[in-house]
Each structure stands twice: as C-alpha cells, then as structure tokens.
Amino acid sequence: MTRATWVHGFLRVPDGTFTTFDAPGAGTGAFQGTIAFSINPAGATTGYYIDGGNVPHGFLRARDGTITTFDAPDAGTGAFQGTYAFSINPAGAIAGEYADASNVYHGLVRAPDGTITTFDAPGAGTGSGQGTFTSPIDGLNPAGAIAGVYSDASGVSHGFTRAPDGTITEFDVPGAAGTGNAGINPAGTVMGNWLDSSGVLHGFVRASDGAITTFDVSGAGTGSGQGLIPSVINTPGDIAGFYTDASGVDHGFVRTKHGAVTTFDVPGAGTGSGQGTVPMCNNPAGAITGFYFDANGVVHGFLRTP
C-alpha cells in the first residue's frame, strides 16, 4: 500500500457481480476507510471502518445494504484504539475486540439484537498492547463459541476458547514458548500455531475434548521466524495455511482432518524472500482463497478449487 491508500469494502455474489460500499463515517485519508472481514450464509457482512481520526468502529451490513455501526462501551477514542469486528455466524452474532483508552485489548461479542458483551481471559495482561484478542475470519462458530489468544503480563501469548455461556478455557501447547490461536469450526475444533524456544513456528489442532495434536509441514524452515502458520479451519476439519521455507519464501498447504498434508504454490508466485503463496480461508467444500506476491512484490488474489 502507498501512503495515499483509502480502503473500501466490497461484496462479490456467486454470479460474479461486485458491490462496493463504505460505512458511514469512514475516513478518506491514508489507511482509513472500510474493511469487510466476513460474511454469513444470509449475506450479512461485518468488519470495521477507520474514521478521519484513525479510530476504528465496527459495522454490520445487512443483505439489503443497510449498514449499522457500533462501538464497545469502553472502547478508546484515540488513534487506532476503538472497536474491531471480525467474525459473523449464521445467527448474526459478531465477535471481535476493542482497545481501550490505555491501549489494552478486550474481547467482545455482539448479539443479533445488538447487545454487546465484553470479556477478558482471566490471565490477560493489563499493560499497553496486552489483553484479549479474538481470532479473525473464523473466530466465532455457529453455536457462539469464540477462539482467540491473550497476552499475559509478560507479553507471552496463550490460547483460549469462550463457550456460548461465557465460560473461558485457557490453554497452551505443551512445551510452547507462546501459543497462537487462529480459528474454531462448528465441531469446536480449534487450530493455530505455536512458537518453540528457538522462535520456529509449528501448527496445532485442539479437539473439543482438549486433546492437542501438533504438526509440521515438510519443507518448512527451521530458523527463527520460519515454520508454518495455519490460517483457517473449515467445517469438515481441514486446515489451510502457509509455511515459510529456509529462504524466506511462503508456500500454501492444506491439512485434512486425518492429517494428510498437501503443499502448493500459485503459478506466478515469486520465489524470493518475502514472496510466495499465502492462503487465508477455506470453505466446507475445500475451496481456498488467499493472495500471492509475484516476483515484483505485487499482491494478487487467488482461488484454489478442491
């Protein structure tokens, strides 16, 4: 992005028609505007917009195009404080997070009737940049369970799940120097990444009963900051993500529920450090979307069919 970037939301329906939109109040300056994050089966879209003062606010766009904006009650009003909405489930509930006036982060869930409930993982830190963070895209499942991470008072990350009744369960991958959490599917299976003592990233799957399985992808680098990052889990339990090799190049992978891993690269993806293929989302049928960097560092979208 350039310093003059203004962000707009868009919706593309199955026949290929695009509808662009902006939330009321969205700013028109650098890195301001409207960011749509997810859509539910009814066609309702959620995300956040950044106003002229660089403050984020949540929004809900109904299928008919009506946009409702909202803020968490204690959200800060300084630059890049405020409300971030990420995930919407079939019932229309929305999960996200907000930063308060002290730059501490807290989780939130907005019920279909508009009621906002905020929450904190019990072990979350209260310093600037610490707190409770909900996972984007698939951080909220149809039953209302939420997945995310929290940063403790020492800045170490840990995973958590929040049940529909509000019960929060914290967890760590055994032996991890930090646990990341990237999503939850309808069965309550959670997946994400974890950091070892050498700074290498690995994947994990946590079943609804709490059992954790770790995994790696052949070809992933073993240097600090390398390894793999699972991005999303679909209804059947298949995980899509990417891994960084020893040369700093990113490659896509998909791991089935039973553990079989397939790696892939988009034709045209660059092969230099910081380039490559980055999957972001997969649907129940196994289609994968994401983006790739070409040899010139230009970003393009892709769709990989099953």
Order of helices and strands: EEEEEEEEEEEEEEEEEEEEEEEEEEE
Strand content: over 45%
Class from helix and strand fractions: mainly beta
User: Spans of 5+ residues with little confidence (pLDDT < 50)?
Assistant: none
**Biggest sheet: strands, sense, closure?**
5 strands, mixed
Span between N and C termini? 31 Å
The shape is globular
Strand order of the largest sheet: 1-4-5-6-7
Q: Specify Rg, calculated over alpha carbons.
A: 19 Å
**SS elements, strand count:** 27
Number of helices: 0
State the helicity in percent bands.
under 10%
User: Average pLDDT value?
Assistant: 93
List keywords for this structure.
globular; mainly beta; 5-stranded antiparallel sheet; 45% strand; 306 residues; 5-stranded mixed sheet
Task: Give a brief description.
The protein is mostly beta strands and 306 residues long. Helices cover 0% and strands 45% of the residues.
Written account of the structure:
The protein has 306 residues and is mostly beta strands. It has a domain at 1-171. 0% of the residues lie in helices and 45% in strands. The protein has no helices and 27 strands.
Which helices and strands, and how do they pair?
Blueprint: E1 6-7, E2 9-12, E3 18-21, E4 32-39, E5 45-50, E6 56-61, E7 67-70, E8 82-88, E9 94-99, E10 105-110, E11 116-119, E12 131-134, E13 146-151, E14 157-162, E15 168-171, E16 178-179, E17 183-184, E18 190-195, E19 201-206, E20 212-215, E21 227-233, E22 239-244, E23 250-255, E24 261-264, E25 276-282, E26 288-293, E27 299-304
Parallel strand pairs: 1-4
Antiparallel strand pairs: 2-3, 4-5, 5-6, 6-7, 8-9, 9-10, 10-11, 12-13, 13-14, 14-15, 16-18, 17-18, 18-19, 19-20, 21-22, 22-23, 23-24, 25-26, 26-27
